[in-house]
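User: Fold this one for me? It's Mannosyltransferase PIG-V.
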Amino acid sequence: MPDRLTISAVATTTTATVDDAGETTTRPGGAVAWLAGRDWVLPVVLFLAVRAIGVATLARFTDLRGGSLSASLSAWDGKWMLAIAEYGYDGVPYTQADAHGYRDANTPYAFFPGYPYLVGLVADIPGVSVLGAAIAVNIVLGAVAAVGVARLGALCARRMSERPSGRGWFTDNLRARTRVSMLWNENPSPTGDPDPTRVGLIFVVLFAAAPMGIVLSMAYTEALFCALAVWALLGVLEHRWILAGLMTLGAGLTRPTAVVLIGVVMLAALLARRDGPSTWIAFVLAPLGYIGYLAVVWHQTGSPTGWFTIQTQGWGTEIDWGRSTWDFVNYSLVNSSEVALVATAWITVATVALVAVAVWERLPWPVLVYGTLVVVSIGASSGLMMSRPRLLLPAFVLLVPAAIALARSRPFTQAWVLVAVVALSSWFGAHMLTVYPHAI
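Assistant: Here's what I get for Mannosyltransferase PIG-V.
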């Protein structure tokens, strides 16, 4: 009975908050929460195991194709990250160029400073290479993200099951789901609700095995951004506003997708202003990182839209309201025989379907709005279409309903589904980095 023992231990020291809808969130507090193996150890072990399989698969691909694992882990934007970490923005070698082969003094400013500067700090340790620092940082950041992902999955599952009748399709159909669960589960819950802890752990595996989850192990920003985003969302849901504000500030220094998280945190803080001064602190903190970096690029380029100009001219990224995405999906599914193109198109379609499911299942609104707007922001922009599976990774929160569905099934079903997901993710990441020439 390890599950119940762990839950009982955690329950001995808890704190509770009540949100605007009257829902109560109980969370472990003090040393008990820190030491609870179910809270920290299992999510980290699962995450690292999945990522180890992915990296091992990539290593095998590179070996068979005469490549280098280190080169694959630092490919494409990774080279920019390592160069900024080692030399700073003004010292990046001119061998680095944008997608059109062009380069000037402003080109490196297309990349936000959070991740490369963090890598640079670690690389300053004697005996640590820049690539070694980048990989080590992402191992730690991935572990931190995994703990937050498990906690977020459990919290969402609990809230979705506790809503009163009539407030969501999920709760309105519990009776029918209970009858189905009697056929699937060895020990079904009398209410049909899955164990939130199990939901969280399955959610960790789905996160680590996302289609381009390999970037979580590369010299890329995804591990840092996802860690910051998930803890910011937890801060909102648990009404820990200083945490939410600080995490969002950091996300704003990491990548432009943070604008979505900033909007969610600021709106949530405004709606919860009765919580006290901490909501206003979060409201002010949230946009500072993003605005601050845009101001730095403004100073560098002399234009308030300097960053957007660099990005558009160098990488062709601009808002076209989904025209490029629509054309790409239609072309790939009808005309292409290339595995990478077809798979990317289906991943894009599947992500839109996940948005529909998340709306149908009534995810807690901050999580739903964040995930939906990430998908909208990526789908509505132009640029290299093959980078879509990577760019959509921060929308991993939309996998919560899938984790809940799997948590209702028998352990055997859970195992083979998750093994299949990990295998496909490992193959896809390795294929995109070593076989397809223009992946991410």
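One thing worth pointing out: The beta strands are 14-18, 24-28.
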